[in-house]
Amino acid sequence: MTVPPGPTGAPDPSAATPADSDLVRAAMGLPVRRTPVWFMRQAGRSLPEYRALRAGTKMLESCQDPDLVTEITLQPVRRHGVDAAILFSDIVLPLVVAGVDIDIKPGVGPVIASPIRSVADVDALPDLQAGQLAFLETAVRRLVAELGATPLIGFAGAPFTLATYLIEGGPSKEHARTKAFMYAEPEAWGRLLDKLAVSAATFLRTQVDAGASAVQLFDSWAGVLSAADYAERVLPSSRAVFDALGDRERGVRDVPRIHFGVATGELLPLIGDAGADVVGVDWRVPLDEAVRRIGPGRSVQGNLDPAVLLADRDTVEREVRRVVEQGRAARGHIFNLGHGVLPETDPDVLTRVVELVHGLTER
Ligand SMILES: Cc1c2[nH]c(c1CCC(=O)O)Cc1[nH]c(c(CCC(=O)O)c1C)Cc1[nH]c(c(CCC(=O)O)c1C)Cc1[nH]c(c(C)c1CCC(=O)O)C2
């Protein structure tokens, strides 16, 4: 364990390896020492040490520099004593590496120079080659060595959410162009999602082979779809990503899978069915109700509203307690926010939430 202990001591003081960590155990529905905690976007703008390190380097360049990736990924583990690191990267990185012209504009998000607007554009989308990911393998190997018993979560963007950026050309609220393409060009839509599934699987496979202990598939914007459209036109591609990951029967190295989207209340059972061990739940559905929708065979992750962290101390404590209590309905609960840390969040509040959850759930 080369990471200095966080404020509450090292995560999982008694875990000897990442495979025995509370994060992995909760994901698989096994008993835990205490409820594991991490935060989506824990590595990011809420941390002054992140802003200092990133100064002068563009986001997508930072993600391809193993030194920066390692240091930025470790920062929140050191500071907060969270139970997992999440790789510092971005969902659009596999596209960037494959040669798609994308920029991440601060305060905006990913912007695509030539959005996909035709069937020919789909077929011209370059494929990611595993050989292009040497920097990623280096960063993950280095991180796994530094993290000791703390697990590293690898991640990728799900085909649908990546398709929304490629088709809209940037962030969007309604995703109307994306849906119009999905309805008007069902075959090309299917080919696009299949391509994105292959690249997501390659990106994840590289992280798992290099030692990541769990993976999360981010389908952030899937909640804009009806359950019927999600089931028919999107779920098969996300399932293909999970299916490509590992083969438990044949003993190929496999790790727990987390599947997350925002505003997915109506999709929760399907998000589970796509092949997840853990279903991410935003703040709109309480965890006990989410468990009823998902069924008993999967764990849950979430679901504190990120905006609560901007409120007063008593409100934060009350809401953390509520999430912990409602999470007891699940076979396993990984405490997290319902979406990413807001940049204006006071990092000390995040540290306090980790301490609170650990204190409330210590066995
Ligand atoms: C939709 C999405 C993206 N990226 C991601 C998603 C899925 C999760 C979600 O729904 O939030 C995933 C992501 N992006 C980033 C991570 C790193 C790991 C972590 O969670 O700490 C992860 C897991 C770093 C990042 N990705 C980004 C930042 C901010 C870059 C900066 O420092 O300016 C970070 C730390 C940029 C980014 N990249 C994207 C957006 C919307 C933005 C924010 C734009 C902004 O508000 O400035 C696309």
Question: Your description of this structure?
Answer:
With 363 residues, this protein is α/β, with parallel strands linked by helices. It has a single domain, classed as TIM Barrel (Alpha-Beta Barrel). Helix content is 45%, strand content 11%. The chain is built from 15 helices and nine strands. The strands form two sheets. It has a seven-stranded parallel beta sheet with strand order 1-4-5-6-7-8-9. Strands 2-3 form a two-stranded antiparallel ribbon. Helix 9 packs across helix 10, helix 10 runs parallel beside helix 11 and helix 14 crosses helix 15. It is globular and about 55 Å long. The N terminus is likely disordered. The structure holds coproporphyrinogen III. Coproporphyrinogen III (CP3) binds next to strand 3.
| Total number of strands | 9
Small molecules (ligands, ions, cofactors) in the structure: coproporphyrinogen III
What shape does the CA trace take?
globular
Order of helices and strands: HHHHEHEEHHEHHHEHEHEHEHEH
| CATH architecture verdict | Alpha-Beta Barrel
- List the strand order in the largest sheet: 1-4-5-6-7-8-9
Task: Tell me the distance between the termini.
Answer: 23 Å
Largest beta-sheet characterization: 7 strands, parallel
CATH class descriptor: Alpha Beta
